[in-house]
Amino acid sequence: xxxxxxxxxxxxxxxxxxxxxxxxxxxxxxxxxxxxxxxxxxxxxxxxxxxxxxxxxxxxxxxxxxxxxxxxxxxxxxxxxxxxxxxxxxxxxxxxxxxxxxxxxxxxxxxxxxxxxxxxxxxxxxxxxxxxxxxxxxxxxxxxxxxxxxxxxxxxxxxxxxxxxxxxxxxxxxxxxxxxxxxxxxxxxxxxxxxxxxxxxxxxxxxxxxxxxxxxxxxxxxxxxxxxxxxxxxxxxxxxxxxxxxxxxxxxxxxxxxxxxxxxxxxxxxxxxxxxxxxxxxxxxxxxxxxxxxxxxxxxxxxxxxxxxxxxxxxxxxxxxxxxxxxxx
Amino acid sequence: xxxxxxxxxxxxxxxxxxxxxxxxxxxxxxxxxxxxxxxxxxxxxxxxxxxxxxxxxxxxxxxxxxxxxxxxxxxxxxxxxxxxxxxxxxxxxxxxxxxxxxxxxxxxxxxxxxxxxxxxxxxxxxxxxxxxxxxxxxxxxxxxxx
Lengths: 329, 146
Prior knowledge:
The complex is a heterodimer of chains A (329) and B (146).
Chain A: E1 3-10, E2 14-17, H1 18-25, E3 34-37, H2 44-52, E4 63-67, H3 80-85, E5 94-98, H4 104-119, E6 123-130, E7 145-153, E8 159-168, H5 190-212, E9 221-224, H6 229-236, H7 243-246, H8 252-255, H9 262-273, E10 279-286, E11 290-298, H10 307-312, E12 315-316, H11 319-325
Chain B: H1 7-12, H2 14-19, E1 21-25, E2 31-32, E3 47-51, E4 55-65, H3 74-80, E5 82-90, E6 95-101, E7 112-123, E8 126-134, E9 144-145
Parallel strand pairs in B: 6-8
Antiparallel strand pairs in B: 1-2, 1-3, 4-5, 4-7, 5-6, 7-8
């Protein structure tokens, strides 16, 4: 059975509050208390490396996955910086990069869990985002920065993989960027977007629960990577999802939207708050549309990494400093 | 005047830039960073690779203004008004020069610092990465959870 042997999160130091954004822009994203902002000398790769360095790695893993929508290069393999920075460069590691949607983190996790099961050995899965270039009051004001890293192994004491299921279908016109664009577009038909989310997430959950012979109430924590509680309530309320299952492990209000890293950061928060035997469900959605539902059972080595403190930490900056960090001025 | 580092040179020095790989002299045990052809202390040629911990203390520091920054760091200096550079004495002994990052106030001699990999500058379109030093403590509330 594939297991999580270790986990780590890393966040940049700077944080901007929703109040600062509201004062300067006249509005702030709904539900956001504050968000983390990458420093001028940070990007998704340095954040990913900082998170991965906190994993206990002493030999070359069989696999390494990097998930991000904000990598510095458009066309080149970039996980090499991670393997070299970790001192793990050389023959033997299969690298994959996942870059096109917020689902990239669970896409990487699913693939490398399968590889770990099939090949044996260990895999490192790292997801990071460092949003830049947007400082207006639009949807991109939600984007934050942070990273999470998981060490997968054939066995391990943090958590065991119980199973995963997935959903895929075409849903055109949801939030997207054309090739070469930084800003996101959205057809802004909320009812259509909510229905697409419900189809995708519901489809994955409806496939997973019977396979586990369980219902949603069996999970102590449900990790979600979307920023709108109304979406969550509409999609999963009928299945019985309770606030206490998802809000304590929902990093968005403190970190901002973390894109490809959102689900894995939430998983780290859940692992850190879990007791042995707790079930954790990770749900991730990529507009377009696809969704993953991945279930874990926490083991005796979960907890105690200080993830919640890291999520809550940071040093608040004013709006002028925020504009500089976002590379707008 | 800047110190141009070609892409091949940058690649050759990645082990020291990303992992602080130093040398320990096989003859006298001297630790030196960056690696060199021979031991500074005894001139012996044989050495072993030693990965430095990245932990150290500020031995001296200065502030580089935009006017004094070399060209590769001019954008950084212009944006921030300048940046701090320190001589850091590492736990293993070597003293090395690097930028300080994530400062919330001016540094002081004796401050404990830790190496982190950050963006340095972009040249020829290639992003160069390397170590800087931060006072943030791994595992503390404002940085990492692991």
